[in-house]
Amino acid sequence: MTRTRVDELRVRQLKAQQLLRGELEGEDLEQEIEKRLLFTRLEEAQNWARKNALFPLGFGLACCAIEMITVVGSPRNDLSRFGAEVIRFSPRQADMLILSGRVSIKMAPIIRRLYDQMLEPKWVISMGACASSAGMFNNYALVAGADKFLPVDIYVPGCPPRPEALIYGIMKLQDKIMGHPDMGWRERYGAYGTEEREVKYDPATGAVAPEPGSRRQTERLDAART
Amino acid sequence: MDATGLELIAQRVRDGVSADAVTGTHFLRGEATLEVAPAAVHDALAYLRDADDEPWPLLMSLHGCDYLPEEPRLGVHYQLLSVERTDRLNVKTRLGVEDPRLRSVVDLYPSAEYQEREVYDMFGVIFEGHPDLRRILMPEDYEGFPQRRDFPMGGEPVIFTFNEHKFPRWYD
Amino acid sequence: MTEGDPTGVPYREREASVTMGRLEEEPVSGTAAVTEGDVHDELFTINIGPHHPATHGVLRLLTTLEAEVVRDVKPIIGYVHTGIEKSCEDQEYWKVITFVERMDYLAYYFNAQAYCMAVERLLREEVPARAEYLRVIHLELNRIASHLFWIATAALDIGAITMLWWGCRDRDLVLDLFEMSGGQRIHTRYFQVGGVMEDIPPGFEAKTREFLKVMPQRLDQYLSLLDRNEIWLRRTKGTGIVPVERLLELGVTGPLLRAAGHPWDLRTAMPYSVYGDFDFNVPVGTVGDNYDRFRVRIDEMRESLRIVEQALDGLPEGPYITTNRKVALPPRHELATSMEALIHHFKLVTEGFRVPPGEAYAAIESPRGELGCFVVADGSAKPARVHVRDPSFVNLQALPDMARGGLIADFIASVAMLDPILGGVDR
Fold first, then answer.
1. What is the CATH classification number for the domain harbouring A81?
2. Would you place residue C30 in the very low, low, confident or very high pLDDT band (cuts 50, 70, 90)?
3. Which side of chain C, N or C, has fewer Cβ within a 10 Å radius?
4. Coil/strand/helix, residue B165
5. Residue by residue, what is the 3-state secondary structure of A71-120?
6. What pTM, to 2 d.p., does this model score?
7. Is B1 on the interface with C (CB under 8 A)?
8. ipTM for the complex?
9. Domain span at residue A202?
């Protein structure tokens, strides 16, 4: 620490001492209080607390579960940095369900029951290719993607996704919880679900203006909606 | 084991069980397969396990196969192992799909319990005498035997631009 | 009702575990006879359901308890059944490797090795020596990784939570090596029919030797944490004992059988690949309880380190995949100059190689026991049947014997030491 840093610290300490003792008045008092106050909305504070203390439900099905355990349990990719290390095995005590692995038709009703037992607010991360779509196993034994019976918030692709990829997915979920979901490419291309529309992207403002009648598919969809 | 050793085993099984028990022998790159008639499977395995001079006390694997264009369609393989002679023998039988019944070998080799249930689940071969024959991998009320060749693969069709209009999407 | 109800007994009744009536009349096989004084009035059937601490996968255990004593256990499986064997019939031979790798998802190289051995036997194909040595190095490293994950989660179940961090930390070192050679940490598709996908990169050997230097001290650390811990010893010694004859009857192989005293290891008894060139021991236990299973696996890790070191020392030069262009892709630089290479490349990529009709069963020693792969070829480019004899599937039949008569805490320790991998059980 340099000389000036030590001096600053000392001054701060003295000011804090005076504030606590009630010795400050007027201008000084207002300045000190402003440094310590934060104005926000209740929603944002609530979301901030929720995103930093996610309780994942300990639920691993297949190979992706190994990578999930590596994320939680390995010193290298450590999920406690993000506050989500506490894995609760009871669905009543958890709020995030990380579906890691292939969802077979025998297991699907059980997952639904677990999801129903979780309390609001709850989020679902579908980890891996097999939980998002059928993965490489497009056959009789699997449900092709967990979103057939669960609402899914984040899809993490990969077979299996790297621990870093899962952490990235959890960070995206944190953005979503805060209320600013990062729509990524959807913003640039003006996507409708997973379809792209031909758009005019204005790099200056970041605005997209869809061209009317640009793709037959979107017209059909719009007509079906109205 | 070589081809002549296999033929000697076949002859001994014929003598020990019945003359029409053994329907064929195959030998491929060190692997010996003895094909037996379905009615004689239990007796042949009992003979091979107990009564033979070179006994085969362990069952390593019991699996099924569907040879669809060829008749009889279903095949059940018993992979036997002898620890003493560090040798393997494959015993094979072929069944038709109309009446796929075989006598269970759980009394000889308790290891067959789960494996026979799997063959029943996947191919529909009914093992008489099995203590608890029910589906093991598929849900209990599933209909059909998935690993038969004429059972459809299932799954979802892959959506391309030429057929995407036929399938309702999640936002429709 | 299902179309086939062959035994005539209703389904739910068949699934039920033991009842009081049965306990009093005839003892469930494997337990001592229950006398009048022992039997209380209540049997409590509990479902240790498919969702339980996610370490062993989705296994459902229908347990009948009497106070804390386990009277009967019925495992119900099938919750991760993926239909891999049926999917394989639709893929070319080299594509099947990716499917088969995902069965026993901790020992992925072993699945690929068994399958490649079976197909090579059908093709009558020789694998070059360098490829065999590279395969052995990766197999033994995968054995170490699998045992590390096992000790991490088994100790977690029994309560020694530190082992989770340590086991995963060291497993990350092995997965770094796999990432160097194969590009991915898990399911690398590194083994191909005829050899391996690519030669090892330049830094691989140095990094592996570093790992080999560090690992024995780590194993000593694990033992110093667990082996002298009173709680660990009391929970694992004397629990989950099954006699050797019963294990052999049930078809159990691998560390479970070796812990009971039977020295059956396919690497030494019926050597495959180049295991005959290496000098290593096979650890064998005496009593067959959970403690012996634990020690056998730790010592197996040490022996695997020896094998990897010997393989690195003796690694021969040569091609890393067979030079038969009908089976393996030609190197890229040949495509610019040789027409035959172009045609071979085209045929292999679009159609794949064809295998003459036949059937083969190849068995190897995976970290859980005998892993066998049965391939039926019908002359086309896709296999007609691929079946994997998974060791966890057969070893699971020993679970009721391990559990009966013991306390439920010992039952959990037995499940941990049994090391079932549900991906292989359900396929």
1. 3.40.50.12280
2. very low
3. N
4. helix
5. HHHCCCCCHHHHCCCCCECCHHHCCEEEEECCCECCCHHHHHHHHHHCCC
6. 0.86
7. no
8. 0.90
9. 185-225
